[in-house]
Design brief:
Elements lengths: L8 E9 L4 H14 L3 E6 L2 E4 L10 E10 L3 H14 L14 E7 L6 E2 L4 E2 L8 H14 L4 H10 L6 E5 L13
Antiparallel strand pairs: 1-4, 1-5, 2-4, 3-4, 3-8, 6-7
Helix pairs in contact: 3-4
The structure holds adenosine-5'-triphosphate and 2-amino-6-hydroxymethyl-7,8-dihydro-3H-pteridin-4-one.
Catalytic activity: 6-hydroxymethyl-7,8-dihydropterin + ATP = (7,8-dihydropterin-6-yl)methyl diphosphate + AMP + H(+)
Pfam families: HPPK
EC number: 2.7.6.3
Length: about 180
Amino acid sequence: MIEPQSRLHQAWIGLGSNIGDRQDYLLSALKLLHQRQGVQVVCTSSIYETAPVGYLDQSAFLNMAAQLTTNLDPEHLLRTMLEVERELGRTREIRWGPRTIDLDLIMYDNMQVEYESEHLILPHPRMLERAFVLLPLAECLKQAGHPDMRQIEQHLDHLDMTEGIEKWKTFSWPDELGHTES
Ligand SMILES: Nc1ncnc2c1ncn2[C@@H]1O[C@H](COP(=O)(O)OP(=O)(O)OP(=O)(O)O)[C@@H](O)[C@H]1O
Ligand SMILES: Nc1nc2c(c(=O)[nH]1)N=C(CO)CN2
C-alpha cells in the first residue's frame, strides 16, 4: 500500500486539548508541525468546544482538524506528530483521559488508503464514531473539495452528533501565525 515517497500526499489530522491554555496548545502544535521537514499545514477547520467522550470525568476539549501536505510516509508522519505531542508536554496516564495535546492521523490521502502496523491504523479506527473528529474534518474536506466529503457528512448524519459540540472560534490558517512567521 505505501508507495515510495516521491510525491506529495495529503494527510488529515485531528487535534484536541483539554488542559491549560487549550487554544495555545492547538496553535503551537500546528506551528511545530509546520516547521518540520516535509510537513506543511495548508488548511484548518474552526475550533469546536466538545464534551468529553469515553472518559467523562474531565474538562471540555477544544477540537479541530487540519489538512497537511507531506512527503513523509504515514509511519514517519505519525512519529513526527508524536514528537510534537511530547514537545508540548503530552503524557499518557488515563486512557482517553486529559491531555495538553492529542494529535491523531485521521486519514492519509483518502478513506481508501488502509494501513495497519503495530503503531498505526489508517484510517483512524474510531473516527467514524466521533463527532468531535468528523465535524471539523468535514469542514476541512469541504474547503479542499475532497471526494470523501459526502461520505463523512453521511456518517455525521447518522451520529446524533450536535449535542455537546459547539463552534468555539473560527480559525483562519495561516493568518493565525501573524506576520512574523514565514
Ligand atoms: N491513526 C492513528 N493516529 C494516531 N495514533 C494512532 C493511530 N493508529 C494507531 N495509533 C497509536 O495509538 C497510540 C495511542 O495514541 P493516544 O494515546 O493518542 O490515544 P488516545 O488519543 O488516548 O485514544 P484514541 O486512539 O482512541 O484517539 C499512539 O501511540 C499510536 O501508536
Ligand atoms: N470531546 C473529546 N473527547 C475525547 C477526545 C477529544 O479529543 N475530544 N479524545 C479522546 C481520546 O482520543 C477521548 N475523548
